[in-house]
Amino acid sequence: MQAIARMGKAFALAAALWCGMAGAVLAGGMAPEQVMQRWYQMILELVRHTPTYSPPVASRSFAYVGVTAYEAVAGGNTNLQSLAGQLNGLQPLPARVGGVYDEGVLIQAALAAATRSFFANTGPTGQRAMTRMETRLRARVAEGLPADTVARSEAYGAAVAAHILAWSANDGGAAITNMGFPQDHALTEGRAHWVPTSVIVQQQAPLLPDWGKNRPFAMPAGNACAVPAPPEYSEEEGSEFYKQAREVFDTTANITPEQLVIARFWSDDPMLSPTPPGHWVSIAMQVMERENAGLEKRVDVMVRLGVAMADAFIGCWYSKFHHDLLRPVTYIRRTMDPQWEPPLTTPPFPEYPSGHSTQSGAAAAVLTAAFGVDYAFDDATHRDDGLPVRRFASFWDAAEEAGLSRLYGGIHFRAAIERGMDQGRCIGGFAAALTTRK
């Protein structure tokens, strides 16, 4: 009951945010960058409460929403260059025709249509929240504008969203059945390979084993940033593999209060949080509010961030199912302590490399390129969940802590963390290299 109450409260808050908008007021009654901010806040809540939204699925939607916002603005901005021809399979966008457009109306229409499409399967509370948000924002952005400007702007925003949605339909990730768990999946034989770590019947198969085959956004292929093989599997006490497992065992046995806070802060479990990619979206939103970033900056940052993290999950999942390595909980119970329990719940898919590390590395690469190598910031993503605000000296500082959090949580070996970070840095480089300025 508490979870349901919180869900209703969160959606009501997100839908009501329209009435307290900050920023410069344009002819339409609201700055377009604030329209964008409010829709992203809504999306973070929808991710938290939509059952099919595991981290890879969330990353995909953040990417497509980011492309939608970017292309809607770029279509009428002389400084911005379309990503058509740069992102895999993205064809030229519809052009604006003659007449006046309002950016607030336009981006409101584009993001409303995109959000409704990508969260069509959310529950009744989410559906009502989207309807309420769209109705009120639509009225607010149209204040004082000629009817033809509103109609023209809304039509263009909807056309951009429809174009992106059609592009998304054949990427391999559009249909999620059984919440992403295949109903027939043969496990790889051998003691080194992944076996289920949960007693939940559905999770006797791994999550989204074919996700690494999806069409990437900016990187050329799912294996473009492949990781080297993990340490050779061994149950000998002197082996490198045993040493890495022993580090997990000893760390969790002597975990400090600070390490436990870090593990929980970055856990970002599905249905309990906006997921790991949503956490980085939250960080970017906080930074851009602090910087009072304009519309050009916001759409540029958010499209690169979304693309980087979506590619990170494709690349990471390609590697995970290529190496198909068992989790620490399986190995430690087999070789050290049959009753061992990690501080955090082990996710239902192979261990190597770390998804947290890969996507955090990709996010840090993009945000560092956008704001600088020594950009310090506070992260209040989980303040409403009762977790403290954390301070970071840079985006890489945050990414490295996110990676280590999985060691503290008993979920990953060190090799998966370090090599996942390298993989993320490589993948993020493709998004950072996109040409957005003419």
Kindly describe this structure.
- The protein is mostly helical.
- It has two domains: 167 residues, Vanadium-containing Chloroperoxidase, domain 2 (Orthogonal Bundle); 254 residues, Orthogonal Bundle (Vanadium-containing Chloroperoxidase, domain 2), CATH 1.10.606.20.
- Helix content is 54%, strand content 1%.
- It contains 14 helices and two strands, in the order ααααααααααααββαα.
- It has a two-stranded antiparallel sheet with strand order 1-2.
- α1 packs antiparallel against α2, α10 crosses α14 and α12 runs parallel beside α14.
- The longest helix is centred in the last third of the chain and has 29 residues.
- The N and C termini lie far apart (52 Å).
The CATH architecture of the largest domain can be given as Orthogonal Bundle
The outline comes out as elongated
**Distance between the amino and carboxyl termini:** 52 Å
Mean pLDDT: 94
Order of helices and strands: HHHHHHHHHHHHEEHH
What are the low-pLDDT stretches, counting only 5+ consecutive residues below 50? Answer: 1-9, 12-27
Tally the helices: 14
Number of domains: 2
Instruction: Estimate what percentage of residues fall within beta strands.
Output: under 5%
Q: What structural category do the secondary elements indicate? A: mainly alpha
Q: What is the β-strand count?
A: 2
The Cα radius of gyration reads: 22 Å
Roughly what percent helix? Answer: 40-55%
Largest sheet: 2 strands, antiparallel
Strand line-up in the sheet with most strands? 1-2
CATH class label of the largest domain: Mainly Alpha
The name of the CATH topology of the largest domain is Vanadium-containing Chloroperoxidase, domain 2
